[in-house]
Each structure stands twice: as structure tokens, then as C-alpha cells.
């Protein structure tokens, strides 16, 4: 510990250093051995004869202005082997750790970001997603994308939406766990994005809009949209909308016609239009009282929720977990699958999604869905969704 303390206090001491690093307007006095021992990049820079810097007593490092502000904290990690990571500094630290091949620091930053991303603003989450993708951090980028998709209803309303790149927009459109008011809302958001950017991407992105999940008047509005002024796009939209009407016309006859509607195009996302949550309902659930709510009754989008569902929370013995049971007696659905989805919110942002198993249903059959739900989540801001999924 005495040696460690001595090394720690040696950072940025002109009298004992053997190399100075000039970063922007700042100069840091360091030790070649410590830099080389912590970073493969500095090791080559300090000791390789191929690098002119190895013979210099002062080395100029060119960094982005925002990274310059965190460079002292970055270098201090080499001497202290510890660092306090925060929202303000983590972006710069992870870029610097990646650039100079400081693996332990990079892993610390990744762990911090993965733990904190669900509590960040949408703007910060989008920034972290770009960082993770740029640095090829697949697990972190997927975690960020998950949060972005869970809060897409907020993303599409934010000023950042029109500036998102095509790859991120495409990833969102492909995602079945997208939380959005309705599919028509997503279409309008895409239309807004295309208008701000370029209609050249329309033919690539439009097929990922699930027109089958729109109501009839919404489909008519799509056919009257500005996109249909383009001959090729009008033809594409006509084809996509016709598939939506195919679901409406043939779903009830799919068994006798041996039809399949199992592709993503026909599957619902997590639509807030179908939520059955209210404050009284949450209070009843907490108290173990069975509540009756109106929800959807079919895989075909409808303007009304006309099925009665009974919701009851049953606590497991000697456990802090229970099961939220959804029971429907009068479903109008044909054959397919059903699923209950619970959105856990914090300050109006979705931070977790809990799903029931996908359950097979048949005409006029008793339908029950169970979701395992920790008791603590009942104190959270919950939104409850029920989805019918055609097969």
C-alpha cells in the first residue's frame, strides 16, 4: 500500500516525470514506464524506435475537445487503478480507453453504461447507442436499442428523431417489442423522418411498417398520404395495404384455407392504444381484488376494446413474487396466440418489460394468461397490454 500510494502521488509531478503529454492547452507530467505498463499504444509510442515520439521529452496528443477535458482523469487511472465514472465523463473515458487499448478501464465504462442506461434520458440513450455501435460493443448497443425501442413513443416525438440515421430507424421498425401508441403513429413518424431526410429510403423502410395492425380509416389515410404522389411508392403502398385487408378478410377462415399469418408483418407490437391500465386497477391488484377491464378481443385491429378481462394478483407463499392472471371468457378471436405484457415505468419512461408466455387460443375457449411479477413492481407505474397474435 505504501508503494501504491507513492505511485499515486507521482502523477503530474514535473520534478520526477520523464515525459510530458500536451493535450489541447494542458500539459501532464508522466512516467514512460507507467504509461507503457497500462497501455499497449503508449508502450509502442514510448519505447519503439520506429516512433519519433520515443525520443521526445514532450509529446503532443491530438484529441477531440470534449475528450481533452477528461484526459487528466484518464491518465490518473494509470496511477491509481481506480476512477469515478459518471454521466459527464463516461463518453470520453470509453473513447480514450478504446483508442489507447486500456481494457480494464473500457470494461468499467461498459459496465457502468449497461447498468445506468435505463435511467438515462432518451437523448443520452441515443448518444450511448451511437458510441456503443461505433466501438463495436454489441451487448451494450443491444441494451441501448432495447431501451430506445421500449420508449419509441418518446423517441419519435423528440427533436432527435429526424436526425437518427437510417440503420437505427430500420432496427426500430424491425423490432416487435417497440412500444408505440399505434402502428399508424409509427407510420406518421416514418413519414416525418423521410420528409426531413429523403424519400429515397421509403421503398426500403415502408415494408417494415405493419399496416396489418392499422384500423380501416388509418389505412385509408395512408393511401391518401403524400407518399402516394410518387408512382412507384403508390404501387408499393397498394401492395402492402392489400396484405392488411387480406388479414381482415381471411383470418376467420385461415384453418379451412390453410393460410398462415405468422410473419412479423402480421404481428402486433406493444401498442399503448391497447393498454388497460389505470390507478384504480393497480390499487385493486395490490389488494388482491379481482378487477374487470375492457381490452381487445381479436388479432384484427378494432376501434373499440369490447372483451371483458378479469385481472387478479396471487402472491406465492413465502415469496416476494406473485402471478398476475388475465382471464377472458368472451374472446372473438379465431385461432392463434395471446400474450400479456406489463410495462414497468420510472418517471414515465419504460425501464423493463415483463411478458407472459405466448398462449394458444381457440374460438370461444376459456383463455388465461399468467405473468410472474415481483411484488415490488406493484408499487411501480405499470401499463398493462394484451396482444392477440395470428398464427
TrEMBL record:
Give the domain of life: Eukaryota
Ranges annotated as spanning the membrane:
none
InterPro entries noted in UniProt: BACK, BTB-POZ/Galectin-3-binding, BTB/POZ_dom, SKP1/BTB/POZ_sf
The record's annotation in Pfam families points to:
BACK, BTB
Where does the UniProt annotation place the signal sequence? Answer: none
Which intervals hold domain BTB? 17-87
Q: Which PROSITE patterns match?
A: BTB
Q: What is this protein called?
A: BTB domain-containing protein
Q: Which organism is it from?
A: Biomphalaria glabrata
Amino acid at each position: 500500500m505504501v508503494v501504491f500510494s507513492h505511485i499515486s502521488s507521482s502523477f503530474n509531478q514535473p520534478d520526477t516525470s520523464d515525459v510530458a503529454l500536451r493535450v489541447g492547452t494542458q500539459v501532464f507530467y508522466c512516467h514512460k514506464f507507467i504509461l507503457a505498463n497500462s497501455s499497449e499504444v503508449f508502450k509502442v509510442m514510448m519505447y519503439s524506435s520506429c516512433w519519433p515520439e520515443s525520443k521526445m521529452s514532450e509529446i503532443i496528443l491530438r484529441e477531440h475537445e470534449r475528450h481533452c477535458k477528461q484526459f487528466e482523469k484518464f491518465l490518473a487511472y494509470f496511477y491509481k487503478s481506480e476512477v469515478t465514472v459518471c454521466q459527464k465523463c463516461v463518453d470520453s473515458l470509453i473513447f480514450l480507453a478504446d483508442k489507447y487499448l486500456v481494457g480494464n478501464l473500457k470494461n468499467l465504462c461498459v459496465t457502468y453504461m449497461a447498468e445506468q442506461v435505463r435511467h438515462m434520458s432518451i437523448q443520452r440513450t441515443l448518444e450511448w447507442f451511437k458510441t456503443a455501435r461505433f466501438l463495436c460493443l454489441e451487448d451494450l448497443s443491444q441494451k441501448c436499442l432495447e431501451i430506445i425501442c421500449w420508449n419509441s413513443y418518446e423517441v419519435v416525438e423528440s427533436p432527435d428523431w429526424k436526425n437518427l440515421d437510417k440503420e437505427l430507424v430500420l432496427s426500430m421498425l424491425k423490432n416487435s417489442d417497440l412500444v408505440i401508441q399505434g402502428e399508424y403513429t409509427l407510420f406518421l413518424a416514418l413519414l416525418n423522418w423521410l420528409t426531413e431526410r429523403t424519400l429515397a429510403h421509403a421503398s426500403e423502410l415502408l415494408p417494415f411498417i405493419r399496416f396489418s395492425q392499422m384500423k380501416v380509416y388509418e389505412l385509408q389515410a395512408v393511401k391518401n398520404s403524400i407518399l402516394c404522389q410518387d408512382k412507384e411508392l403508390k404501387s408499393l403502398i397498394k401492395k402492402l395495404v392489400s396484405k392488411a385487408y387480406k388479414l381482415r378478410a381471411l383470418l376467420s377462415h385461415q384453418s379451412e384455407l390453410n393460410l398462415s399469418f405468422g410473419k412479423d408483418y402480421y404481428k402486433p407490437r406493444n401498442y399503448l392504444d391497447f393498454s388497460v391500465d389505470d390507478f384504480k386497477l393497480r390499487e385493486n391488484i395490490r389488494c388482491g381484488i379481482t378487477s374487470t377491464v375492457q381490452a381487445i378481443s381479436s388479432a384484427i385491429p378494432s376501434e373499440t376494446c369490447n372483451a371483458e378481462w378479469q385481472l387478479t394478483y396471487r402472491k406465492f407463499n413465502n415469496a416476494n413474487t406473485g402471478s398476475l392472471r388475465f382471464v377472458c371468457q368472451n374472446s372473438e378471436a379465431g385461432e392463434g396466440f395471446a400474450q400479456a405484457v406489463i410495462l414497468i415505468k420510472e418517471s414515465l419512461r419504460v425501464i423493463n418489460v415483463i411478458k407472459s408466455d405466448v398462449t394458444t387460443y381457440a374460438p370461444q375457449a376459456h383463455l388465461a394468461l399468467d405473468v410472474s411479477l415481483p411484488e415490488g413492481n406493484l408499487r411501480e407505474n405499470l401499463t398493462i397490454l394484451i396482444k392477440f397474435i395470428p398464427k
